[in-house]
Amino acid sequence: MKPLRDISLLFKREFIHALRNPTWLVVGLTTPLLYLALYTPLLQKLAGGPGFPTSNVLDVFLPGMLAYLAFMNGTGEGYATIFNLKDGQIERFRVTPASRVALLVSPILADIVWMFIFIIILIAVAVPFGFHAHIAGLLVSLILLALLVMVMGAFSVAIALINREISSFAAIVSGVSLPVMLLSGVLLPLSMAPSWMRVVAHLNPLYYVVEANRVLAAGNITNSTVGLAFLVTVGLTIVTFWWATRIYRKAVA
Amino acid sequence: MSIVSAKMLTKVYAGKIRAVDNLDLEIEAGQIFGFLGPNGAGKTTTLRMLATLIPIDSGEATVAGQDVRRQPAKVRRHIGYVGQFGGADPLATGREDLILQGRLNGMSASDVKKRTEELIDVLDLREFANRKGSTYSGGQRRRLEVALGIMHRPEVLFLDEPTTGLDPQNRANLWVQIRKLRDTGTTIFLTTHYLEEADALSDELAIMDHGKIVAQGTSRELKQQIAGDSVLFSFKNNGEILDKAIQLFKQQPYVREITKEGEQVRLYVKDGAIALPELLRLLDKENIAVKTMALSEPTLDDVFLRKTGRSLRDTGANSKGNGESK
């Protein structure tokens, strides 16, 4: 299959690129590590209380953090798009017979694989500190997080193609990221939030993934929260990819 | 049989700006076809439409026998394209970049390997082929980009401003490479806003302005249309003197055309060597003091000037010098 061959060619290129520009990798990994090291200690006294039912706050915090990691991974996608627009690489590939889907999806797939590697490292770091890892739940969670990267990646690429300038793109991304993060329950579970916040959170795709990821981390695969999160992310994947493909065909002029 | 053909090709931006306006074009295979014009003339837009990068608003185009509007995927198999911004990957080595390009174009692994080595020799990339693109000089990067454009042996190669930003030595070097490509049968369609480049490189060229082709032919044919030499005057005590001189020139039968260029006036005459002394005598009689004077054989700029009333050297879209034809 031509698209699959193109995806594997471009995926390999993108994956290796990350190694050649290790700053992104280092920052990508140290951010969640810093949260684990410098934020979870603040939560210690809440263990066993509201929002943190188990004896270890990592059981609640780490799954939420992983969802946030996926979110940030996806939203960062547009930066590469803008660089590649400027240096002519997008144009260069568009003139080849390479599959259009492959051009769009390959960098996102490479990002997903890097995220998986980060997640394994983070869990390996968290287990000695008392995090309870459930393998089956974790595997389902990886699929859910991959979908979130796809959603945010397609969204981010579309915004980048519309804006074309790093400065305005960065402003939009950080402007969107902050409220999305605060309203997702990553830092503190929203079960502690006033009801209006919980209502608003339901408009936030990250919220569903954070909630589902916590359920999955507890080893609870068949929970309806998980089903709902899959429904939301699969739906959004379809919508954002449809949108991004349209913009890609039209805007890359 | 034309390898590139366009009929009534049109691109309209923002609903009203006719970037390319009912363009007709026929390009014979195996030549270097140059597209000359100021920035914003519509050269790049034309090239991008033909290279399947942007949709054609109206009109028809075929490249290598394939319909650009209906079969863009088929067109892509026959063309190479090197854009203004090139597209070399700063994080990949030149060799890796060539291999990827070949593979994406559907070449077999063994063919890719062979072709990569071939191009490394032809375009003289050996010295830096294993270094990352980010370490290349402008000339090195451009050579790699041309190699990327021809990796899959396209029938038609589109080059958008191939030598912009290169120093004279690298420019001359690239010209040699482009001619070599033509000699191996590739049709090359290039845009440029350098007169010298269009003149030296093109087998045939079209001059474009405001979305339309204003002149087309070989460089020699175009210059012959001017049929004569150009004389450029400026005068002391400008102002009224200039107008007075123009009135005087207009009465001379051997002056074919007069163009005011700011504070200077350009005349086209049949034979400069005969006309010049005559003109000087005339001016002297009227007590008009000449400040500067230059006689030149026609250049492509003269062709452009004659067709558009503006000089290509007055970069871009400014419209100094009101064309005034006799």
Structure summarized in a few sentences:
Chain A is mainly α and about 250 residues long. Chain A contains twelve helices and no strands. Chain A is globular and about 60 Å long.
Would you give an account of this structure?
The complex is a heterodimer of chains A (253) and B (326). By secondary structure, chain A is an all-alpha fold. Chain A has one domain. Chain A is 77% helix and 0% strand. In chain A, helix 5 (77-86) runs parallel beside helix 8. The radius of gyration of chain A is 18 Å and the shape is globular. The model of chain A has no long low-confidence stretch (mean pLDDT 93). By secondary structure, chain B is an alpha/beta fold. Chain B folds into two domains: 2-217, Rossmann fold (3-Layer(aba) Sandwich); 228-324, 2-Layer Sandwich (Alpha-Beta Plaits). Chain B is built from eleven helices and 15 strands. Chain B has a six-stranded mixed sheet, sandwiched between helices. In chain B, helix 3 (94-104) crosses helix 4 and helix 8 (219-226) crosses helix 11. The longest helix of chain B is centred in the middle third of the chain and has 16 residues, at 168-183. Chain B is elongated, with a radius of gyration of 23 Å. Chain A binds chain B through residues 2, 5-6, 9-10, 13, 16-17, 20-21, 86-89, 91-98, 252-253, and chain B through 48, 51-54, 73, 76-77, 79-81, 83-92, 96, 100-101, 103-106, 132, 145, 148.
